[in-house]
TrEMBL record:
PROSITE patterns: ZF_RING_2 (PS50089). Residues 144-185 form a coiled coil. Keywords: Coiled coil, Metal-binding, Zinc, Zinc-finger. Residues 205-232 are annotated as: Disordered. This is RING-type domain-containing protein. SUPFAM superfamilies: RING/U-box. The keyword Acyltransferase does not apply. Residues 12-52 form the RING-type domain. One of its GO terms (molecular function) is zinc ion binding. GO terms for biological process: reciprocal meiotic recombination. GO terms for cellular component: synaptonemal complex. PANTHER family: E3 UBIQUITIN-PROTEIN LIGASE CCNB1IP1.
């Protein structure tokens, strides 16, 4: 059996090494725990078990047990005793071991139960955290979806505005062409008049088409100005 005894002081639970203090109430303590309790006191009348409180007044109610006895010790310790006494001693030793085993099993079961409860509580907590995180992620996804929708709408508006701008640009170009044509058309009579006027001036001996002083005293070749002077 791989079971190993532990000090029955619940806050200690050390594995006693070579020696341990054992009691007739089937408890065992490490030397340090024994020394710090009434077991270590010189007065046997004052001894009580630190684990169960049983009074341990008789001389052999508390003994120091060698946990790794030597061969010579094993050879001699029961020698001289009758088989009945040997069996009584052996039965007591086995009962002690059985009690310690059952106590350890109970302790481990309780520790496992406690660990499981803690684990369940942590899992529940984790479940809550996961739920909150899922909810937050859902909210963020919704916000992202809305933002994406807004971006698409803005993109569409931008495309429409760009289309409008291109349309305006086309209109502007069309109007510019029309304007140029109209302007050209409006200038034709002026050009014709200016040409006729200059021709008449040349016929009277003036310089045709060059830089000259006009009849109204201005200097230059701006026939449009002269045309305007006459026809406007
Ligand atoms: Zn101890
Ligand atoms: Zn006890």
């Amino acid at each position: 059996m791989d079971f190993q005894l532990r000090c029955n002081h619940l806050r200690c639970r050390e594995k006693p090494k070579d020696k341990a203090v054992v009691t007739t109430c089937s408890h065992i303590f490490c030397l340090a725990c024994s020394d710090s309790s009434t077991l270590g006191a010189g007065d046997s009348a004052a001894r009580t078990c630190p684990a169960c409180g049983t009074p341990l007044e008789k001389p052999y109610d508390v003994t120091v047990a060698a946990l790794s006895p030597t061969d010579d010790y094993k050879m001699s310790i029961l020698s001289g005793l009758s088989p009945t006494v040997i069996m009584e001693c052996a039965n007591s030793g086995l009962a002690f071991w059985a009690y310690q085993s059952s106590q350890e099993i109970y302790y481990q079961e309780h520790a496992n139960k406690s660990l499981k409860q803690q684990l369940d509580a942590k899992n529940q907590e984790l479940g809550g955290v996961k739920g909150a995180a899922r909810e937050q992620i859902g909210g963020l996804e919704e916000a992202l979806h809305e933002a994406s929708d807004k971006i698409h709408k803005l993109s569409r508006s931008l495309a429409e505005m760009e289309e409008g701008r291109k349309s305006l640009e086309r209109d502007r170009n069309r109007y510019r062409v029309s304007y140029e044509k109209l302007k050209q058309k409006a200038l034709v009579p002026d050009i014709e008049n200016a040409a006729e006027e200059n021709a008449a001036f040349a016929a009277q001996g003036g310089d045709f088409g060059g830089v000259r002083t006009s009849r109204n005293g201005s200097v230059g070749t701006d026939y449009r100005a002269r045309g305007a002077h006459k026809y406007r």
